[in-house]
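Dear colleague,

Thank you for sharing your sequence with our group. We've completed the structure prediction you requested, and as agreed, I am returning the results in plain text so they can be pasted directly into your records. Please verify that the sequence below matches your submission; if there's any discrepancy, let me know and we will rerun it promptly.
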Amino acid sequence: MSRTLRTMLTGAVLVAAAVSLSAQQMPPTPARGAGDGEGPFDRMVIRGVTVIDGTGAPPRGPMDVVVQNNRITEVASIGFPGVAVNERNRPAKGTREIDGTGMYLMPGFVDAHVHCGGGQARDAEYVYKSWMMHGVTTVRGVPCGSMDWDLNQRELSAKNQIVAPRIYSYHRPFSGEGWDRARPQTPESAREWVRFAAKKGVDGLKLGAHDPEIMAALLDEAKKFNLGSTAHLDQMGVSRMNARDAQQLGLGTLTHYYGLFESLLKDYTVQPFPVNQNYNDEQHRFGQVARLYDKIHPRGSAPWNALIKEWVDAKFTLDPTMTIYSAGRDVMRMRNAEWHDKYTLPSLWDFYQPNRNAHGAYWFYWTTEDEIQWKRFYQVWMSFINDFKNAGGRVTTGSDSGFIYQTYGFGYILEFEMLQEAGFHPIEVIRSATMNGAATLSEPKGKPADFGIIRPGLLADMVLVDQNPLENFKVLYATRAVKLNDQTGRVERVGGVKYTIKDGIVYDARKLAADVAAIVQKARSKPATTARQ
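Please find the predicted structure tokens below.
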């Protein structure tokens, strides 16, 4: 299937580190206009819906859900399926009514690992709407952009002055406007940076595999200011700071898998890389990391079970982001994903192509053997995640989209499918994407989550879809799910999020999708073109 995508940046060199743009580099985010969502309303009632509440409880319906301004005020059972409702028992009429008959209502989704673009997608409106058309109402930027830009976007989103999910702003140590990056990185300067970032107003720290004494100082100081923490324990430092080490120092969340496998190494204390390994070669970096699956203590062994118990007891959180690496096990599938033509920016598409100067564009000569190694790696990784969940561990749902053929929003829903592949029941997947994400972001602040569950008193962040997502997560993609209509004998598209509700404001998800498609089409109308590989 050969199609042509046009790009804005044909022949340009796209570099890796462009996820922390300054406010001057990012175009202004358009203000929310009159056609961007409706509400909030004095009283909105969603009628006759089936509720998946986010806690792990089974679906229940028909229900009437009442929202006043930005809060859920009532969740009322109104009878039994197939039985006429006694109208006298229903909540009073609202100023805005939504007929939810046949629909499913869930809490708004939480993407616990995002970047807001960078050099490959310098359009926050595109990124935000791509998330929201898939039901994402809260994101954790790690970081989303530069510190001051992030905090400004967080404020605009909180006031609903822009169309954007709620933003939690996590930042890398020794970054931020006003911080002298030339200063030596020591435990003392690490503590000073935490105080600097806390004064700025960040929500948490995005850590790497720092030297142990610096990691200890960062995490200890962060707790004094009720700041959360998540870490990508990169390969350049993981030999001194694996996931077990970091958790013991107080790390809250492990993102990706770096450091997990190193905590279970069997015959080595470091990964036995080929002797010609070069971390700056992206195919070396991503190709070799998957070859750890058979170098660790196996599933069910005493070390495997002990690590799970240790982390469950410590209330450690895993945010696996399996989606972002999934092209490694089948690059042709992700390269030809059906959403690229309509919803992937041409600059993003160009960024995805094999390129020695672009982060994650490591397909210099990706082989069947590379994919097989990744498939085996996933089997072990998924087994650990599922065992951890079954032992009582918290797993959240993150995407890290914008790299490696993962387009914003679409990559997030793919994570649902991959969690189910790992062994999660679909209800457990929804819990990971809602209640678990909300709790993980709220707990460092020392207060219960204000969202993530369909409950009276909580924020009115919700997702409405006209198909059963537990039956088929593909109905959550903006491209919708393919289904044969047995009455007509024709193939149809069904599903797609119908409404994304944030702070009681009702967004038509299909209009959001149309807006995203228009942004892509406008970018493609530029004269430079290139063929899809």
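Summary note from our side: The chain has a mean pLDDT of 92.

Kind regards,
the structure core
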